[in-house]
Design goal:
It is globular, with a radius of gyration of 32 Å. It is built from two helices and 24 strands. 9% of the residues lie in helices and 53% in strands. The longest helix is centred in the N-terminal third of the chain and has 34 residues, at 2-35. This is Porin.
Length: 436
């Protein structure tokens, strides 16, 4: 009997000790878990707010072809004399504006379709028209999928001819406008890395912020009437010190869908289109003390990028009631040398653009700076020197700019020849910006 009871007592005792030890262990785990800080959940989205507050004081020696109360000057206005022979456009002007202040959002989120995702949203207060100056204007609104070697961007972003890594850093809000393409469009863009230093981007887009001149006065109608989007390809080489690129574009617009003519007047379908091509090239060399940038474009009908030119209408060879269209040709080039100093950075900008007219005589011109058999712009040259004074997030930039335009009588192609009138404007600008 003792042989049975004694082992039983030992077994019960060992079981109780094991149970007690297990209970202490569980209590210790609970205590440790309770005292440890709770793990913070990782955010699904990350948003960074950026932008700047900017104020510009502007003084011009004469009137200019301009946008938004002279904030953006294109070229000096032609000489217009009164009864006493005085040039009515030789009038100094000035303004004080903060409408280019800007705000943006950079957003990253969870992966989708096996790619990293991001989005960019930006606007300023420049307005879309003279009547909406000071109101919020959409600049960028796009989302991207990045698969490391291939990136897809959908939404409103820069025209593919505008190169964010290589554009004029002038203090003037013009960003080199009239010599450098400018503007944003709704687009689909695929960028593929061919190697560590070389990439190719294919973009299809439709005009949005700016567009070709419409014969009917309806904004962007020539682009909307066209089924095919504009197609642009860009090949780029980039390393730490050198950026090189070349691009080409094919564009087809349908200015109007119907036309009225004849006696008695009848309205019929109009099928005429304006087809155009353009090529651009750019380079940027970054040294220890200075950076050199250069850009050139040979384009047809590039009004949508806020440049000289457009297209002319001609009589149809197959139907006298219809219109056909031919683009005018524009060449533009610019060069900029700027200091890389972190505090005091002087810079010099030089730009030139010329209107070469259309290849055939037209009935009417739909263009910027060009009319048929009337006073038109032949070419424009600009030189601008500035000094950027930088401290922390604050920048002061005084800039002196001289822009000259040759005006003359155009023929039926829009090309200017004969006696020219050279008109020049001096602009002094003092810009301040606080970046956040």
């Amino acid at each position: 009997m003792k042989k049975i009871i004694l082992p039983l007592i030992v077994s019960v005792s060992l079981y109780n000790q094991a149970e007690a030890q297990e209970k202490k262990t569980e209590e210790k785990k609970v205590e440790t878990t309770a005292s440890a800080p709770a793990a913070k959940p990782q955010p699904v989205f990350s948003t960074v707010i950026g932008g700047f507050v900017r104020t510009d004081y502007i003084w011009d020696s004469r009137k200019n072809a301009q946008v938004r109360e002279n904030h953006l000057n294109l070229y000096p206005s032609d000489v217009v004399k009164d009864a006493n022979g005085k040039d009515l456009n030789a009038v100094p002007q000035s303004n004080f504006l903060s409408i280019v202040s800007r705000i943006n959002l950079k957003i990253t989120g969870p992966d989708a379709f096996g790619a990293k995702t991001s989005a960019f949203f930006e606007g300023d207060f420049f307005g879309n028209t003279e009547g909406t100056i000071g109101l919020f204007r959409l600049r960028h609104a796009n989302a991207s999928l990045d698969w490391t070697k291939t990136k897809l961007t959908l939404g409103q972003s820069w025209y593919p001819q505008f190169i964010p890594e290589c554009f004029p850093g002038v203090a003037n809000f013009s960003t080199g406008i009239l010599f450098n393409p400018f503007g944003w469009v709704s687009q689909a863009k695929v960028t593929h890395s061919l190697s560590k230093t070389t990439s190719f981007a294919l973009t299809v887009y439709k005009d949005r912020e700016f567009g070709s001149v419409s014969p009917t006065g309806v904004a962007n109608e020539p682009s909307v009437n066209s089924v095919m989007p504009t197609i642009h390809g860009n090949l780029q080489y980039k390393n730490a010190k050198v950026l090189l690129g070349i691009g080409a574009e094919a564009r087809s617009l349908k200015p109007r869908t119907s036309i009225t003519g004849g006696t008695p007047a009848v309205t019929i379908e109009n099928t005429g289109k304006v087809n155009s091509l353009s090529v651009n090239a750019y380079a940027k060399i970054t040294g220890k003390k200075a950076t050199l940038k250069a850009y050139g474009i040979l384009g047809q009908n590039i009004t949508q990028m806020v440049m000289l030119g457009g297209y002319v209408s001609v009589a149809s060879t197959s139907n006298p009631f219809q219109e056909e269209y031919k683009p005018t040709k524009t060449n533009a080039f610019w060069l900029e040398l700027m200091s890389n100093d972190a505090k005091v950075a002087p810079a010099l900008f030089l730009g030139y653009t010329v209107n070469n007219g259309a290849d055939v005589a037209g009935k009417a011109a739909y263009a910027r700076g060009i009319s048929l058999e009337k006073r038109s712009v032949k070419d424009v040259v600009r030189a601008a020197g500035r000094i950027d004074f930088k401290s922390g997030k604050m920048r002061f930039s005084p800039e002196l700019e001289y822009t000259a335009a040759n005006w003359g009588n155009a023929d039926k192609t829009g090309k200017v020849s004969g006696t020219l009138t050279n008109v020049g404007n001096v602009r002094f600008l003092f810009s301040t910006a606080y970046t956040f």
